[in-house]
Amino acid sequence: MTYCSVRIARRGAALAALLMLAFAASGCNKLKARDLLNKGVTAFKAGQSDTAIENFKRARDLDPTLMNARLYLATAYASSYIPGAPSAENKARGEQAIQEFQDVLKIDPNNLTAIDGIGSLLFQMAGTPPVNAQGFMDSKKYHQQHIQLKPEDPEPYYWIGVIDWTLAFRDNGELRLDYNKNNIKKQVKQDDPLPATVRTQYAAKDGPLIDEGVSNLQKAISLKPDYDDAMAYLNLLYRQKADTAESQAERDNLRKQADDLVEKVKEIKQKRLEQPQTSSMRLMRRCPVSFFRCTISVFQLGSSLPQGHRLA
Known about the structure:
Elements: H1 3-45, H2 49-62, H3 67-80, H4 88-107, H5 112-126, H6 133-149, H7 155-182, H8 196-223, H9 228-242, H10 248-274, H11 279-286, H12 295-300
Helix pairs in contact: 1-2, 1-3, 2-3, 3-4, 3-5, 4-5, 5-6, 6-7, 7-8, 7-9, 8-9, 9-10
């Protein structure tokens, strides 16, 4: 063997040894990351949010491919956000959660957990004074993205209906307030029909929004026939649609449909009360359709949740 061949052989052996060390270090980091993930879940369940967040961050940094570390980190930030609290610190927590979810989408653009998480946070943050109408529309885009990926899920249709009602109801209230300010002696109460000129304005601006919301809530109910939350909001949207009706007969018909839905919701809730429930069913009832509200229940399931699993 020549001198050159010996040097080449030695270099090859050294390179192989380095690769083996790197592989071993990588495997060690992955094990450490999973251990930190488990510790983060334990800390979160114990109410130690700051400790949980630090553990999730370290797990993410040690193993960037560990998607659950990223998702749990985003969820931990989201759970610390207080809906309606206008402080800069609270807003920053919400924005941090959104950023973490967006980082997940950079790796996995179709991750429904991240999509739902952003949609829910944007909805919550949009309703914090001062109300941000564009924030509601941004939230809607994520729910529409969910529908494109999994059209058989009823929840995103429900949330689009909720958003549309929220915007329409707000506009309705503002129009009534403006009218009453200019007509002191002829006030319009909450349940009164809108004056013709105001009705026309409301129908032009919010009519398409109301129709979209009605259509989506009806779709949610068709996918989940006992979806009482969707029925409750469909009832509310029918009442908004009644304020766009030109004839009294049409208005009365829409309000009758709304009243019928109220009775249907009562019936469904009564049946549930009469049915024995398993622990898993009770968990589902405590965990509404929103991903954002399911955070704690998901953490209680532990860190064995498979990657890409939806929390809603």
